[in-house]
């Protein structure tokens, strides 16, 4: 791998500035680790308002990649015999709904997960946030399917601080950052300001807000670091046999262009060249991607602060690590418009699926709540056949959607894009 990593290093230094400019990405930082040999590169600026240069020591928000660190803290409690994976959550948080720790870790808890209520900046914010979850709806029976759940990871963060007897961010620093030498990891804006900190960009301009609510910190609302620090965390996972259980499949994913399955925190990819694991993250104008090939001991972390980051990330990933094949429409697949048409809703979007006179299916999605604040925009696209009830949006930049379940009248119960949006009473018949 030595020659390969040298080639990657040279390519990054030569190509990264142009790649960022081509895709309108203000700033980008990358680290690649191959068997302990680390290379880093950065390009662009941390904010177009200040023009401060992005360097390999700059910290970017990692968004939901934070969830893997939160899961690792929970697994540390499991290893110490302080938490049991299959114990009800109310063992540690009395009065919480019927769900297990394992179900929270692998996103099968089944309750509404996009809850971003700000409960303040104090050390009691997680406690207050978890109390609010008593009122959120249960979408499906726990353990029966996957639906990405941000709220569930805030609950896990609360379990960590209750069992440890310390605020969550202090647990993160004491049990991960300090032991692993993660010197450029910031739990909040007060720590981030001590470093060169990236600012998210929306519509080409710096976002007016740097971070989301502290109550969602265990799910990924605040944590910032360098790619180098994140790969130090990955090296621990590759070296520690006790953490291998986190990469064992817990629930299969629907055909939505994500991984094959979810483990205890990790997204898992079963690829022709062998297994790969990782996680993605997005906050207000900032994005992160982490991929690990354990067979080759290769890992890559890419952080950006705006622009059209997906093609940039893909070009870098393809140089370093195997990725799933891009989905291609299958004209032989004929979607059942009667089953699929309808209105599907969650706390962050409302989606209408309808058929036109030629029998073509159309999807129209309107973002709601925090999705609007994060820069999501409404869009309308035709849905093309792919795999059974999993269809591909014709408009570039949008991943597959899967229609699951049955409402008892022959209609799909859920529209799945990673989260299971529920069919509402309103119906659009073909």
From TrEMBL:
Source organism, top-level taxon: Bacteria
The protein's name: Serine hydrolase domain-containing protein
Record GO terms (molecular function): hydrolase activity
InterPro entries: AmpC-like (IPR050491), Beta-lactam-related (IPR001466), Beta-lactam/transpept-like (IPR012338)
The keyword Hydrolase belongs to this UniProt entry's keyword annotation: yes
UniProt keyword annotations, A-Z: Hydrolase
All residue ranges annotated as the Beta-lactamase-related domain in the record: 17-312
Keyword Glycosyltransferase in record: no
EC number(s) reported in the record: 3.-.-.-
Uppermost EC category: hydrolase
């Amino acid at each position: 791998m030595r020659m390969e990593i040298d080639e990657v290093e040279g390519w990054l230094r030569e190509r990264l500035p142009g790649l960022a400019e081509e895709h309108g990405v203000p700033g980008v930082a990358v680290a690649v680790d191959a068997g302990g040999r680390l290379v880093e590169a950065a390009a662009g600026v941390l904010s177009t308002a200040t023009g401060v240069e992005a360097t390999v020591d700059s910290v970017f928000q990692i968004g939901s990649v934070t969830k893997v660190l939160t899961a690792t803290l929970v697994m540390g409690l499991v290893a110490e015999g302080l938490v049991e994976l299959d114990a009800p959550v109310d063992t540690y948080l009395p009065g919480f709904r019927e769900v297990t720790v394992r179900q929270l870790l692998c996103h099968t808890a089944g309750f509404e997960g996009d809850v971003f209520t700000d409960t303040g900046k104090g050390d009691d914010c997680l406690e207050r946030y978890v109390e609010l979850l008593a009122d959120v709806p249960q979408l499906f029976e726990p353990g029966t399917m996957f639906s990405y759940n941000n709220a569930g990871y805030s609950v896990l963060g609360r379990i960590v601080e209750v069992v440890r007897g310390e605020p969550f961010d202090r647990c993160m620093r004491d049990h991960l950052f300090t032991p692993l030498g993660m010197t450029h990891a910031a739990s909040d804006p007060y720590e981030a300001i001590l470093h060169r900190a990236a600012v998210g960009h929306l519509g080409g301009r710096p976002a007016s807000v740097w971070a989301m609510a502290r109550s969602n910190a265990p799910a990924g609302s605040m944590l910032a670091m360098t790619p180098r620090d994140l790969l130090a965390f990955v090296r621990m996972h590759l070296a520690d046999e006790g953490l291998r259980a986190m990469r064992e499949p817990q629930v299969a994913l629907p055909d939505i262009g994500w991984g094959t399955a979810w483990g205890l925190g990790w997204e898992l990819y079963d690829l022709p060249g062998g297994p790969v694991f990782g996680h993605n993250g997005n906050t207000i104008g900032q994005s992160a991607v982490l991929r690990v090939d354990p067979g080759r001991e290769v890992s890559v972390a890419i952080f950006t602060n705006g622009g059209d980051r997906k093609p940039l990330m893909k070009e870098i990933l393809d140089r370093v690590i195997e990725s799933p094949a891009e989905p291609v429409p299958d004209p032989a697949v004929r979607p059942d418009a009667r089953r699929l048409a309808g209105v599907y809703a969650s706390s962050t979007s409302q989606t209408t699926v309808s058929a036109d006179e030629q029998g073509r299916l159309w999807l129209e999605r309107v973002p709601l709540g925090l999705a609007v604040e994060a820069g999501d925009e409404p869009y309308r696209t035709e849905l093309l056949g792919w795999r059974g009830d999993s269809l591909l949006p014709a408009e570039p930049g949008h991943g597959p959607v899967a229609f699951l379940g049955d409402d008892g009248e022959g209609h799909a119960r859920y529209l799945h894009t990673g989260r299971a949006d529920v069919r509402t009473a309103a119906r659009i018949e073909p």
